[in-house]
Design a protein that fits this description.
Elements (H helix, E strand, L loop, with lengths): L5 E5 L4 H17 L4 E6 L15 E4 L7 H14 L4 E4 L6 H7 L4 E5 L3 H6 L2 E3 L7 H6 L23 E8 L4 H5 L8 H13 L3 E4 L6 H10 L5 E3 L7 H9 L1 E6 L3 H9 L2 E6 L4 H4 L6 E5 L28 H9 L8
Parallel strand pairs: 1-2, 1-4, 2-3, 4-5, 5-6, 7-8, 7-10, 8-9, 10-11, 11-12
Helix pairs in contact: 1-10, 7-8, 7-12, 9-10
Length: 337
């Protein structure tokens, strides 16, 4: 098969979604080694290109902006003029198949959304959300390759490991907070977790991005120990953060993009989970451990599946600092201090 293909991949979402999409692009590159892969994505996620050489070009489409319909027309224009051989879209909207058909691209891969998608797409793939997101996206190319890249892979210069370290990234994206999607514990619990881990002799480091400024400030107000390192502001981009994560023994975080970077690096990771779906967001692996409340909520996981915002009770996030420290230190009990 001629491997000199021009491939257009369309995947809208946050940086975490783009990291989930990497295995799909990597498998395509393995199948077509001389291909040129162009990724259409939201401007907020463009930093994914800093983590991989698999993506050759980007098309920035602001689908959440005020001119979203104009932006979709721009995507259609870029797709038509690009002379692509293959187009793949992760969108599940019924209009996606029409958009892909209008590009005029010969091979069109998308999710099956009804009889129309079956007619307009050359590869209409069943959408299975009940699996790890990387696998869900990878299903899109089952008809194009037998390669199966199971986990994200990122290309950075890994640092030497620092013994007995725990790096904490407490934040989630500001966009999710603005939407009412609470996915992590309070700054007060994060602060107490730092105190407990430091008391156990761990070399604790705290890091965050621009979206985490208020959260970090609250943590610093409440933390009692001075035996930790505040690295907030030292990582300027995702690549810096990835290199830092590669240097630590353990990584403790919220359900957010840094989690997926840690998975790609195979760093021993502990992640706070509340209303979101563990099975779709982390792989079944010995190096990733979810930390969850024992709330027995029948609706959990509810966020995205049953509701677009979290409930007021947030029982699923009533996780204690002792529980977190116990899990990270792999001890039966750490007394409340």
């Amino acid at each position: 098969m001629n491997d000199k293909k021009k491939i257009l991949a369309i995947n809208f979402g946050g940086i975490g979604d783009e990291i989930f999409f990497l295995p799909t692009l990597i498998s395509l590159k393995k199948e077509f080694p001389n291909s040129e892969i162009t990724l259409a994505l939201e401007p907020r996620s463009k930093s994914v290109k800093d983590l991989t050489s698999t993506i050759d070009k980007l098309i920035l489409i602001d689908v959440k902006g005020k001119k979203k319909y104009f932006e979709m027309l721009k995507l259609l224009f870029e797709a038509q003029k690009g002379h692509f051989d293959i187009v793949i879209s992760s969108g599940s909207n019924k209009l996606i198949s029409i958009l892909l058909f209008m590009t005029g691209i010969k091979i069109r891969c998308g999710y099956f959304t009804g009889n129309l998608s079956k007619k307009l797409l050359t590869h209409a793939v069943p959408l299975n959300k009940n699996q790890y997101a990387c696998k869900m996206y990878h299903d899109l190319i089952r008809g194009l390759t037998e390669y199966n890249t199971e986990l994200p892979e990122i290309e950075i210069e890994k640092r030497e490991k620092i013994a007995n370290t725990v790096l904490i990234h407490p934040g989630v994206s500001k966009l999710s907070v603005q939407k009412g999607c609470i996915k992590t514990i309070t700054p007060e619990i994060w602060a107490k977790t730092i105190d407990l881990l430091a008391a156990e002799g761990k070399k604790v480091m705290l890091v965050g991005g621009p979206d985490d400024k208020e959260c970090i400030a609250e943590i610093l107000k409440n933390v009692r120990t001075k035996n930790f390192e505040n690295l907030y502001g030292t990582t300027k981009n995702m690549k810096d953060l990835a290199e830092l994560i590669s240097s630590v023994d353990k990584f403790l975080c919220s359900d957010s993009a840094p989690l997926h970077i840690a998975v790609a690096l195979k760093t021993r990771t502990y992640v706070i989970f509340g209303p979101t779906d563990v099975n779709s967001l982390i792989p079944k692996s010995d190096f990733v451990t979810p930390i969850m409340a024992n709330d027995n909520c029948e609706l959990k996981p509810c966020l995205w599946a049953r509701r677009q915002t979290t409930c007021k009770n947030l029982n699923c996030l009533k996780i204690t600092a002792a529980q977190i420290a116990n899990t990270v230190c792999a001890k039966e009990e750490i007394a409340n201090r």
